[in-house]
Design brief:
With 161 residues, the chain is an alpha/beta fold. It has one domain: MoaB/Mog-like domain (Molybdenum Cofactor Biosythetic Enzyme, Chain A). It contains 5 helices and 6 strands, in the order E-H-E-H-E-H-E-H-E-E-H. A 6-stranded mixed sheet has the order 2-1-3-6-5-4, with helices on both faces. A hairpin with a 2-residue loop joins strand 5 (119-122) and strand 6. Helix 1 (23-34) crosses helix 5 (134-155), helix 2 (49-62) crosses helix 3 (82-89) and helix 4 runs antiparallel to helix 5. It is globular and about 40 Å long. The protein starts with 6 loop residues before the first strand and ends in a 6-residue tail after the last helix.
Length: 161
């Protein structure tokens, strides 16, 4: 990545939470900015598979985000469709990311095993599903954040050093 800051887009998936009340997405934006990363978008969309997928495509293709964080929609409820929407528009999965998030989260709560979160690539954009609660989103972000710049370098064609 060199000296260029990561371009981050945040998408909260919720039927009940407007942007003004999106504490998880807002916390993620603050955490990203604190690392010197550029937050290029932050939006809330309903738990609707096609709307989520369309927004991921917009963030990846039109805004050229390096990483898209989704918040919410990863549980077992019938309305939780974020992983499916993510996989609908991505080319390759990156299972190690969510494996690490889930393993670390299991140290905090056994309920982490109920997460259906995924991580995948759409072209040169990494899409990572995070939980919808602010506390869990902060925690899982912390588990993966240190690897995101290296991931972006690898996606851009850099080495595995």
């Amino acid at each position: 990545m060199g000296e260029r800051a990561l371009r981050i887009a945040i998408l909260t998936c919720s039927d009940t939470r407007p942007l003004a009340e999106d504490s998880a997405g807002t916390a993620l934006a603050e955490l990203c900015r604190a690392r010197g990363w550029e937050v290029v978008a932050h939006r809330v969309v309903p738990d609707d598979r096609s709307r989520i997928a369309e927004t991921i495509v917009e963030y990846a293709d039109d805004l050229a985000a390096d990483t898209v964080f989704t918040c919410g929609g990863t549980g077992l409820s019938l309305r939780d469709v974020t992983p499916e929407a993510t996989l609908d528009v991505c080319d390759r999965v990156a299972p190690g990311i969510v494996e690490a998030m889930r393993a670390e989260s299991m140290r905090i709560t056994r309920r982490a095993m109920l997460s259906r979160a995924t991580a995948a690539l759409r072209g040169r954009t990494l899409v990572i599903n995070l939980p919808g609660s602010e506390k869990a989103a902060r925690e899982t972000f912390g588990f993966v954040a240190d690897q995101l710049e290296h991931a972006a370098e690898m996606i851009a064609g850099g080495g595995h050093a």
